[in-house]
Design brief:
- With 184 residues, this protein is an alpha+beta fold.
- Helices cover 23% and strands 31% of the residues.
- It has 3 helices and 9 strands.
- The strands form 2 sheets. Strands 2, 3, 4, 7, 8 and 9 form a 6-stranded antiparallel beta sheet that branches. A 3-stranded mixed beta sheet has the order 1-6-5, with no helix packed on it.
- Strand 7 and strand 8 (143-145) form a beta hairpin.
Length: 184
């Protein structure tokens, strides 16, 4: 009987040590080291004209970032976000969505963002913060935040600006898709 108890205790400790070892091998989020590099892109539209930019995107919405995975690699340069949609401004999305954004944190802690001849991306959405998001629906139904202006910190002043942009948007011709999160 004592032999069985000793075996169970040994197995318990072996299992506990194994779990601790495996959890230390898990993928931990890389923290930003303060360095930022930019990938240069050329836009087909005038990225400084928000009336035209608003006409190019499929969805504009206010949301709170619930979760973020900003770790990226050279092969996959998209960070991912779970967002609670609090207000649909253009298009109609479900209350809970997932989307991606070009840019994120590389293995060495460097932040990778986009820039054009006229603009630089201002950063990545942060968990718990509220933004006005602009997104394109992708052919597979996913959502991609726009290259620039994709996550503008929410304020009543910015919200009023976006209402004006939407009301006076300049339509932009491109192939359109619907998101799997489209609620209309």
């Amino acid at each position: 009987m004592i032999e069985i108890v000793k075996k169970r205790i040994f197995c318990f400790w072996l299992l506990l040590v194994s779990c601790l070892f495996l959890s230390s091998c898990a993928n931990h989020p890389v923290q930003w080291n303060g360095n930022t590099v930019y990938t240069h892109i050329t836009m087909a539209l005038d990225e400084t004209d928000l009336y035209q930019y608003v006409g190019a995107v499929d969805y504009i919405f206010v949301g709170v970032v619930q979760e973020a995975n900003t770790n990226i690699t050279e092969d996959n340069d998209k960070s991912t976000y779970k967002i609670e949609v609090t207000d649909n401004l253009k298009g109609e999305l479900a209350d809970e969505i997932e989307c991606s954004k070009h840019g994120g944190i590389l293995k060495d802690g460097t932040m990778l963002l986009y820039e054009s001849d006229n603009l630089q991306d201002v950063g990545l959405p942060e968990v718990g913060s509220t933004y006005i998001f602009m997104a394109y629906a992708q052919p597979d139904g996913s959502l991609l935040l726009s290259e620039f202006w994709g996550n503008v910190e929410f304020s009543e002043e910015e919200l009023n600006r976006f209402y004006n942009y939407i009301e006076n948007e300049i339509p932009y011709e491109r192939e359109r898709f619907s998101s799997e999160y489209d609620a209309s």
